[in-house]
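Running this now, will post back.
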Amino acid sequence: MKRILSIACLLILVVAAVGLAQKASGVNVLVLDKATDFSKFKTYEWAPGHKALDPAWDKAIIDAIDKALAAQGLKKGAPAEVLVEYHAVQSEEVDLRTFDNKAPAQGQERASAQLVKKGTLAIDLRLPVGRTVVWRVAGERAITAMAGAERDAFVAKLVTTMFESYPKAAKK
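Update: finished.
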């Protein structure tokens, strides 16, 4: 039952992220506990989230988040003042803008709608006691088949953009 509730909560998060991600940047802060003093966070540990299915994407995401947290002055280590987890979801959408709604000329085919793969990445910072989310940011991007340096650069840029909304008080 807890697993079903967990999946339902993730789906709600994804729907909220997709709905909010219609803004120009495609990155949105979904939770920000304004009472939290982010400048007190010096150490973090990873907590289980929803990993990317492809291990190479998982590694690229973790590396990018580790780098972004280091830029905020946080170091990996115990005891952690904050827990970090990420959630990755991939979906396909139909792009109707590519569909030719007019009847084609004789002997020609109608242009069909294209499928577009989209990825949603959400990053949570949680307090270790009670696992309360104090900051959640989500970003959505169209994705194509990428590997190696192209994939790593894509993920790094997305995570960097996401961390632009990290509370400024924590920056050194």
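Confidence is low (pLDDT under 50) at residues 1-24. More later if anyone needs it.
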